[in-house]
Amino acid sequence: MNRLPGHMVVAHVAKRQIDPYEGFAATAAELDIRLTAGSLGLIQKTIRFAMQRPELRRGWCSDLRYCARCMSRRYHSVIYQFGGVPCCLVHGCFMQTMCRSCGASSDYLIKASVLDAPFKCPHCRRSYGNSSASFVHCMPLQPHERAAIFRIFIG
Known about the structure:
Elements: H1 6-13, H2 33-40, H3 44-50, H4 68-72, H5 112-115, H6 143-154
């Protein structure tokens, strides 16, 4: 795979100098929105939507919450971080917070260990998903599945 290592990406998109292995929260105070959007080829509105917002922080879970079936399809939504969303909006299964292989939980932060092993536990490097299918062979979420997740966020 031809990509930058996680520690370089974290250092590149952070507004201030940080330890890329400790990471930072995806907030407007910490993340350079313009630089991140430009680096990823996205519009700034998309980056802002995916960030933690102060007005919504009350129900926010600081540990990664995920649906194993979504992770198998290489998908995760910021909406899953809200404690008021107990189940996946696509698959109906309960959100998980611990790795099924090693039992560790992970902080929901932008950090090198997460970027170096996408969709995997940063502690044991095992997949959070139900399978270890490669990125090439995974089936992405369908548009109607993504819409179901987005609808809950906008009300």
